[in-house]
Every structure is written in structure tokens, then in C-alpha cells.
């Protein structure tokens, strides 16, 4: 090892090794994220001080981290966090890693609630708390609740909420099961499991290290979305919205599920890659049927 093992040299070495892995799309970026974690600095620091030497301890820690990445461990698990909607969220092997595409759900939810600053919002399958906390950060007057089946995931979500000072009510259970019969929301959002059980992508990339229960949902991947669409009807206010994330090729099927459950104003939206990624529908006010006794 050179006597002056600089930031520039370290990044070049790590990028070269990471580039050899076919599951890594941007080795330069990943090397910078890992070194930034070691040094406790932003990536811009590397361009200002490329010739700054690393200590032996910093070098060894950096090498340990990028060697973990070479085994396939997700970046988010290695450094213990992931940025989502401008929020730094703790993630663990007990939670789904928040993806940028899910920000499309946040954008759409905010469009659906423009005149409801004190809205009641529910996040089903909250995981790290990403959706609930992003919406709370944008709508501080909203009453936000979140449910997850995993106690371990809920502990991560609670920790994120506390650290970010974003009060959210957390409940443990399966989808809408923990709710009281009379609880109603203006919007129910969910990023549920939606991958088919036999999907070959489950053996590729970061999903190999994420909880299977947060990824798969029956033979067609839609079992949980069916349950959510059915259960949410009882907990939406009149004219309330249900919005769910789904697979890139599932928009038509999810639209049909919402139609079958009586939702109106059904639409799908594309993610940043141009794939239809979320679908939403509205619970319309039910008019009481009055029979005409004179007929």
C-alpha cells in the first residue's frame, strides 16, 4: 500500500473492484457513498480534497465495507441507512429498503390531499416508516398512523420517527386488522408485497437480503393488494383515497381489483423509469337506496 493512500486512490481502487460485479450499476457512486460513511462527510468533500491521505484505520474500514458490497450485501444494510424523500432513514434486514420509485406514491398522495391539511392518513406495511414519515414531513398537521405485521420492522420505524421528530401512531398487525371498526381515513397508502413467488428476480440484487414476507404475495403477486383493497373500504371516509404501489406490469390487474371493490376515479401513474408503478382509486359516497312502495 502506498505511504499516502489518498481519497482519490481509494475511490479508484474500490470503483475498479465494484465495476467487476454485474449487479452494481454505478460503482463510482457506491464507492463514494461507502467512503463518505467512513469519513463522515458528503461526496462533495472528495472533489475538494482528493489528495487527502486516509489513515490506516479509515483505509481498513473502507476496504471492509466495499468487500461486503462485493458479496452482494445492499449498500443500505452496510451503512445502516437510506435517504428517502430527503429523510435519512435507518434500515435493517427486517425492513424493505426504500426505493426512489416509491417517491411517486408520495407525490401522488400530496396531490390527492391538497385541501386537507388536517387529513387522517394510514400507511399499511410501513417497514422503515418511509411513506408515513415522508407524508408527515410534508403535512405536519395531518394525523398519520402506520401498521406493520413485523414487530422488528416497527421498532425501526419508531426509531426513525423519534430521531426525525415526526410523530406517527404505530400499530402491529396484518393490514387493517388492528384498526377499530369506526376508524376512518382520508387516504390509505401502501407499498405491499407484490412480487410473484417464483419470480427469478428474487435471486438477484438487493432483494436477496430483504425479508421475503415484504416482497412476495402469492402466485401472481397480488394477494395482499386484494386484501388491502377489500379491507380499506371499511376504513376510508367517503371520497377518501386508496393508493398502492405495485409491479411494473401489474397496473391493469390492480385497476381491475379496485373496480371489483367499488372504487371510482381509478388511475395509474408512472415511476421515474416510465413504468406504471402506482394505482389509486376513490371511495365514493354511498347513497341510501329508498324503495318506492307505490310501485
Task: Supply database-style keywords.
single chain; 295 residues; alpha/beta; seven-stranded mixed sheet; two-stranded antiparallel ribbon; 10 helices; 9 strands; 35% helix; elongated
Short description:
With 295 residues, this protein is of the alpha/beta class. It is 35% helix and 18% strand.
Care to describe what's here?
The chain has 295 residues and is α/β, with parallel strands linked by helices. It is 35% helix and 18% strand. The protein has helices at 7-19, 27-39, 44-48, 56-70, 75-79, 103-112, 130-138, 151-164, 223-232, 251-260, and strands at residues 81-84, 87-90, 120-124, 143-148, 169-172, 185-190, 236-245, 264-270, 276-282. The protein has a seven-stranded mixed sheet with strand order 5-4-3-6-7-9-8, sandwiched between helices. A two-stranded antiparallel ribbon has the order 1-2. Helix 1 (7-19) runs parallel beside helix 4 and helix 2 (27-39) packs across helix 4. The relative contact order is 0.10.
Amino acid at each position: 500500500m502506498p505511504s499516502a493512500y489518498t481519497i482519490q486512490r481509494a475511490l479508484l481502487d474500490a470503483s475498479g473492484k465494484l465495476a467487476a460485479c454485474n449487479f452494481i450499476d454505478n460503482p463510482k457512486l457506491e464507492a463514494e457513498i461507502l467512503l463518505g460513511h467512513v469519513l463522515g462527510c458528503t461526496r462533495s468533500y472528495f472533489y475538494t480534497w482528493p489528495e487527502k491521505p486516509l489513515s490506516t484505520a479509515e483505509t481498513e474500514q473502507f476496504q471492509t465495507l466495499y468487500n461486503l458490497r462485493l458479496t452482494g450485501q445492499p449498500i443500505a444494510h452496510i451503512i445502516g441507512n437510506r435517504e428517502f424523500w430527503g429523510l435519512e432513514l435507518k434500515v435493517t434486514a427486517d425492513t424493505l429498503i426504500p426505493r426512489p420509485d416509491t417517491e411517486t406514491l408520495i407525490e401522488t398522495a400530496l396531490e390527492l390531499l391538497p385541501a386537507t391539511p388536517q387529513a387522517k392518513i394510514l400507511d399499511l406495511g410501513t417497514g422503515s416508516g418511509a411513506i408515513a414519515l415522508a407524508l408527515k414531513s410534508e403535512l405536519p398537521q395531518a394525523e398519520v398512523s402506520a401498521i406493520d405485521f413485523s414487530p422488528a420492522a416497527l421498532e425501526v420505524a419508531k426509531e426513525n420517527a423519534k430521531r426525525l421528530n415526526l410523530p406517527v401512531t404505530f400499530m402491529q398487525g396484518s393490514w387493517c386488522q388492528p384498526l377499530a371498526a369506526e376508524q376512518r381515513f382520508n387516504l390509505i397508502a401502501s407499498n405491499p408485497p407484490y412480487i410473484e413467488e417464483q419470480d427469478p428476480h428474487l435471486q438477484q440484487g438487493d432483494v436477496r437480503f430483504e425479508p421475503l414476507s415484504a416482497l412476495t404475495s402469492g402466485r401472481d403477486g397480488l394477494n395482499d393488494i386484494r386484501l388491502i383493497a377489500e379491507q380499506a373500504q371499511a376504513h376510508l371516509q367517503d371520497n377518501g383515497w386508496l393508493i398502492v404501489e405495485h409491479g411494473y406490469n401489474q397496473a391493469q390487474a390492480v385497476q381491475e381489483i379496485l373496480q371489483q371493490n367499488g372504487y371510482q376515479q381509478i388511475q395509474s401513474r408512472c415511476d421515474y423509469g416510465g413504468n406504471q408503478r402506482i394505482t389509486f382509486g376513490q371511495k365514493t359516497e354511498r347513497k341510501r337506496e329508498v324503495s318506492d312502495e307505490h310501485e
